Amino acid sequence: MGKRILIVGGGLAGTIVANGLCRQLGQELRDGSVSITVLGTSDTHLYQPGLLYVPFGRIRESELFREQRKVLDRRVPYLIDPATNIDLEAKEVTTESGKTLGYDYLVIATGSRIMPQNVPGMAEGAHWFYDLEGARRMRDALDAFEGGKIVVNVNAPHKCPVAPLEITFMLYDYLTAKGLMKKTEITYTYPIGRLHALEPVGEWAQGEMDRLGLKYETFFNTKEVDSKAKTISSEEGTTFDYDLLVTIPPHQGAQVIEDSGLGTGGWVPTDREKLLHDGSTDVFVVGDTTNIPISKAGSTAHFEADTVVDNLSSLITEGRWARNYDGKVFCFVETGMDTGTYVWFNYTTPPNPGPPSQMVHWFKLAYNRLYWLSARGLL
After folding, report:
1. Domain boundaries in the chain?
2. What b/e string do you get for 327-336 counting C-beta neighbours within 10 Å, with b at 16 or more?
């Protein structure tokens, strides 16, 4: 029997791993010495960063989705059957339908999910753009907004760490263009003592917010939202009134991770260089699923997935390790409706955001179009 590679998760990370392995292990797939199976939860693939543009009407919903079967290499079986248990000792994954799938190598790419219900009142009183329904509701709320107090509330942990800054600067430009910024006050809250987890990004963001006259409150860990009174309160004792509350909800990993006893909060303990489950030699963890303290972002998933592809292919064909992951992350940052910057960093090099420009904004818009090549592992 050939080597069985089982990938649990059909998002960006799992898809890139599958497609990359097909390119590097083409001969092995043809002669049957290797098989690759992807276990997913949906027949559609969502370009999640595109949700940022939905509240502003800057992207069509149809641009956000592709059939997952068409994104995956045709040689890879794709099963829409969510995993319910991962047994590392037995080297088996059980699915919702009751199937049991064995493996020789496992790739866990189960991603993350928003949990607004973890904060009392948040689901009822706040708007967000981290799923399509939330982005639609926020679009409707912005259409009806005529001025007042906006609170942009950031909770941890969350994916796409620059998105809270992007939505804040985009709101400023959007409301300015509508003539409403003169009647609007925007306050940005963050749970630690600066405006972003990465200190250089936080310092840059503070300068930009000061320049635009935006308010901010650090050490704001959300306690509750009162949707009737339209207030949001922190564990530290601060309360803000709002007319529109935009929140970055807290995130957790997939339920199957906790149910399988693989990690707290749905995050899997992961070697930050090898991307192996701690103590394992045959279980890789990639994308949002890891507990590595770096950005849970699409580019992180991409660079990690490329590393897993190289190492899995090398282990199977040469019996050796290929390379370690260096913590590389690259994120475009929208700084308004028509300007942007970017941050690049790794484990040893801190980020250094540059001055916003229209050209970087165009680069990000171009990448939005090229995402599907990225998912296929061609970019």
Report:
1. 3-111+254-328, 115-251
2. bbbbbbbbbb
